[in-house]
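Chain X:
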Amino acid sequence: MTSTKHLTATVLVATVLLGAALPVGAADLSQLGLSQSQVDALNAQLTAPAVAPGISFGSPVAFGAGWGQAFFGIGGQTEPKNNPNVDNVDGSASLGMGIGDPYTLVGLEGVVTAISLNNGFGEDGDVSLKLHRVLPGRSGIAIGVDNTTRWGAAKGTKAGTYAAFTKVMDLNGDTARFPVPVAFNIGVGNGRFAKPGSPNDVGVFGSLSVAPWRQVSFIADFDGRDANAGISVVPFPRVPMIVTLGAIHLGQRYNTDTEFAGGLGYLFSF
């Protein structure tokens, strides 16, 4: 179950903390001498959900956790019915946190993952690291390494490195009362991002997401091997929790079946 963990981590890493400020009335803001468009823009920010919905479904993104942020997630996927070596459904769990400040210098995110919930929880797993920086214009860059430390069955996998760039923009302009964010993500890496059987080769991955509502996004993703598609939802606006569901291995490349996958992530601030 080495592929499931990447979906779990993706649900979490794509979480961008927007803040948990209480709504402020437009009348109160207008007393500051702001124009109506400025009032609308501020109200949209101040009443935004505690977290944004996910922006990728299999590919790493350039945004990550910094100091004061930690997260937990659980994810899973169905397995091919003709595979006698695994259960029809399995999952993984991840725990991560950040150090540093990606806005002023760099942030370092670390994630510890147990790669199976069925077969001896915690007996197999790995550690992944990501160094990331937020850039002007709602964008960011990151370099990371998957499986840098491995134990149990995960020892059979190789570590992989990657670099990613992520950009967020508003489809209907940054002055709209309720902007529609679009996130574009692209990167290169080896290991799980390369063709199976050639872990030292370099593959290209990327994703595109659009959030027509502030608590919902639709995602198209290519993780370097397979196409994936999903929907990400923030069920409760004041709770920093994300649920992402979708299909992976679309197109059934490399003799893989299309499977259902999903994950739940929760962000802690301290």
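Chain Y:
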Amino acid sequence: MARTRSTVDLSLAQLDRLVRTRRTEMTRLTRQRAKLQKRLDDLDGRIAEIAGGPGFAGAMGGRSAVGSGGGRARNDVSLQDAIHRVLSKASAPMGVGDIMEKVRAAGYRSNSANFRGIVNQTLIKDKRFSSAARGVYQLKK
């Protein structure tokens, strides 16, 4: 909404009228938004029916239209911490494949097609881990 003139030179009655006008406009816009939101919700429901579920990710090319949560797995701990726990319980250095299996067995979830590569990169980058041999890692001493 464009301002017509400075509010400094308005009387109290004029300021009061301006406030009431803006409140009325805000109420009207809020009602209009609610109607549009209801229409969007109805459309989302119809899309979900056609796609076969509430996430309707298949109909949207693998992505949801309104940020209804995606395909990314959420974990309580970071991958670095999960690997640290696995290696701290190990009695000897472990290979990347073994670490990956133990991390998954401990409950870490990942939808990555290349989870082994991600585990390997994490082992290389995190300073808490050291390489005992090629592809074999342990906790840094």
